[in-house]
Amino acid sequence: MDLKAGMKIRDIKIDTVFIGSCTNGRIEDLRAAAEILKGKKIADGMRMMVVPGSVRVRLEAMAEGLDKVFADAGAEWREAGCSMCLGMNPDKLSPGERSASTSNRNFEGRQGPGGRTHLVSPAVAAATAIRGTLSSPADLVGSN
């Protein structure tokens, strides 16, 4: 993954954040991410996709207004499905790009040939989208 001993994880730039699919696309996962994103914007140049784990979860999230929180922050609100988790559709990383993903696997090429996937929780994914580097929600304390 082009990581080196002693490298600070918070210095790793992320190109794409992916929240959802079957692993971390439950309503409570979407709520956790939305709570962090509410009133904030994702980093310039960041691509963020939010994919509920099921149609039922998607409808529940929309009834709660979570879709609007994600859209207002700059994320793409998607239909339920595999999306970037599987990387067998247009939702892929380009070679050399990195993702912070709530999916369940990160083997080589999982989200696109030459892409690098860092597995994270929904809360870490949301914080990372805001800062543009791998981040914890604690890194946002005191920020706008």
Automatic annotation (TrEMBL):
<keyword id="KW-0100">Branched-chain amino acid biosynthesis</keyword>
<dbReference type="GO" id="GO:0003861">
    <property type="term" value="F:3-isopropylmalate dehydratase activity"/>
</dbReference>
<keyword id="KW-0028">Amino-acid biosynthesis</keyword>
<dbReference type="InterPro" id="IPR036008">
    <property type="entry name" value="Aconitase_4Fe-4S_dom"/>
</dbReference>
<comment type="similarity">
    <text>Belongs to the aconitase/IPM isomerase family.</text>
</comment>
<dbReference type="GO" id="GO:0009098">
    <property type="term" value="P:L-leucine biosynthetic process"/>
</dbReference>
<dbReference type="Pfam" id="PF00330">
    <property type="entry name" value="Aconitase"/>
</dbReference>
<dbReference type="GO" id="GO:0051539">
    <property type="term" value="F:4 iron, 4 sulfur cluster binding"/>
</dbReference>
<dbReference type="InterPro" id="IPR018136">
    <property type="entry name" value="Aconitase_4Fe-4S_BS"/>
</dbReference>
<comment type="pathway">
    <text>Amino-acid biosynthesis; L-leucine biosynthesis; L-leucine from 3-methyl-2-oxobutanoate: step 2/4.</text>
</comment>
<keyword id="KW-0004">4Fe-4S</keyword>
<protein>
    <recommendedName>
        <fullName>3-isopropylmalate dehydratase</fullName>
        <ecNumber>4.2.1.33</ecNumber>
    </recommendedName>
</protein>
<keyword id="KW-0408">Iron</keyword>
<dbReference type="InterPro" id="IPR015931">
    <property type="entry name" value="Acnase/IPM_dHydase_lsu_aba_1/3"/>
</dbReference>
<dbReference type="InterPro" id="IPR001030">
    <property type="entry name" value="Acoase/IPM_deHydtase_lsu_aba"/>
</dbReference>
<feature type="region of interest" description="Disordered">
    <location>
        <begin position="90"/>
        <end position="121"/>
    </location>
</feature>
<keyword id="KW-0432">Leucine biosynthesis</keyword>
<keyword id="KW-0411">Iron-sulfur</keyword>
<keyword id="KW-0456">Lyase</keyword>
<feature type="domain" description="Aconitase/3-isopropylmalate dehydratase large subunit alpha/beta/alpha">
    <location>
        <begin position="3"/>
        <end position="132"/>
    </location>
</feature>
<dbReference type="GO" id="GO:0046872">
    <property type="term" value="F:metal ion binding"/>
</dbReference>
<comment type="function">
    <text>Catalyzes the isomerization between 2-isopropylmalate and 3-isopropylmalate, via the formation of 2-isopropylmaleate.</text>
</comment>
<keyword id="KW-0479">Metal-binding</keyword>
<dbReference type="InterPro" id="IPR050067">
    <property type="entry name" value="IPM_dehydratase_rel_enz"/>
</dbReference>
